[in-house]
Design brief:
The protein has 132 residues and is mainly α. It has 2 domains: 3-55, no CATH class; 58-130. It contains 9 helices and no strands. α7 (89-103) runs antiparallel to α9 (114-130). Residues 1-7 have low confidence and may be disordered.
Length: 132
């Protein structure tokens, strides 16, 4: 395998490093599974490596995941309960109110405007916990 092929694909890199290790059978099994789905694993990995950061970006993906957990599991309520031990009650109430109002926005707006809310929530949480 040429050096270029090793660099071209994460799968090729793994193959080059797993030549004498029995675990490569697991990798081959995964590749067969992906091929049965109609896509070679190296193509899937290459595609993800190329577009994930462009399309969603790491922080954006985390914000969307956080938003989903807030919507479905009300995770922010547990956070606010924990922060209630340390945060000034008015500031905590304002932050909780802002989060609740955000979750009432239409879906597209909720996602589009989530980053400022998450930044504010992160700063509020960090400041509260560092001053406890």
């Amino acid at each position: 395998m040429s050096d270029f092929n090793v660099l071209r694909s994460p799968l090729n890199f793994l193959r080059s490093r797993l030549q004498n290790i029995p675990h490569r059978d697991v990798l081959q099994a995964e590749e067969v599974w992906w091929k049965n789905k109609g896509l070679a694993i190296s193509d899937a990995i290459d595609r993800e490596a190329m577009i994930l950061a462009i399309w969603e970006g790491i922080s954006h993906r985390q914000i969307l995941d956080g938003l989903e957990v807030m919507e479905r599991k009300h995770a922010h309520k547990l956070l606010f309960l924990r922060l209630a031990q340390f945060a000034p009650s008015k500031e905590l109430h304002d932050m909780e109110s802002e989060a609740d109002q955000h979750l009432k926005l239409p879906h597209e707006q909720r996602e589009a405007l989530a980053e400022p809310l998450f930044r504010k929530l992160a700063v509020f949480t960090a400041e509260t916990l560092t001053h406890k």
